[in-house]
Amino acid sequence: MIAEASSHPLNSAVPQRITLPALPAVVIGKVHHVRHRPLRHAFTHSHHQWLVDLDAGTTHRGILQRSCDVHPDDHLSAPQTFADLKQEVLGLLMREGIDAAAVTTVVMLAHARVLGHVFDPLSTYWCLAADGTLVAAVLEVRNTYAGRHCYVVRPDGSGRAEVAKEFVVSPFNDRSGSYAVRLALSPERVSTSIALSADGIPVLSAATWGVPRAATPAAILRLALTAPLMPQRVSLLIRWHGIRLWARRLPIRTAKESRR
Question: What is the DSSP letter of 184?
Fold first, then answer.
């Protein structure tokens, strides 16, 4: 894990102040990915994730909870409660020298577990002070080899931060380079974008964005009918696009490192 260096000019801006939508919410929108080099490959798919206040969790019971719900034990060290998950996030901040005592609210953007399956390439945690000021954010990144890594960043007033890459996500890229991150969280829009560059040259960029809608039973049922099995779809599409890149002879650079 690495926090953005305090000397970075992004930190000179006034911190972002966030107004939260009604939670829990489902963020309904798109995911977009572009690989810039050594060959170009781009896609956009429909997408949705859940937005949850870790102090409240989700309140669904019965069939909704069993078929589609966010589980704290799908994250970090697999804690059993949302309260424990929040404490783990605050612990990550403290390890990077950030005053976690200033944080009153942690909001997580993540995939729900659907019919026993979840795969979340990126879970985002916004750590907010009592007045809504964004103190820090945690990016929990996973790859398809069951590896995971957390980056702690301190976005500026526009939600931007930078962090050195430390974890292999794709076997087509090694650990070199740095990420430019931009986060947005409001009642109108929730988005996470990450752009990887190496030696000042863009390598790839990925973004999710959407509109938060209250996660009512009716909304969840509607999604189950119109956009079913989202985590299964994410898992399948990641592998499908990987096969397409391999078929186009994109070199596999880090097959062993990806498992670390």
Answer: E
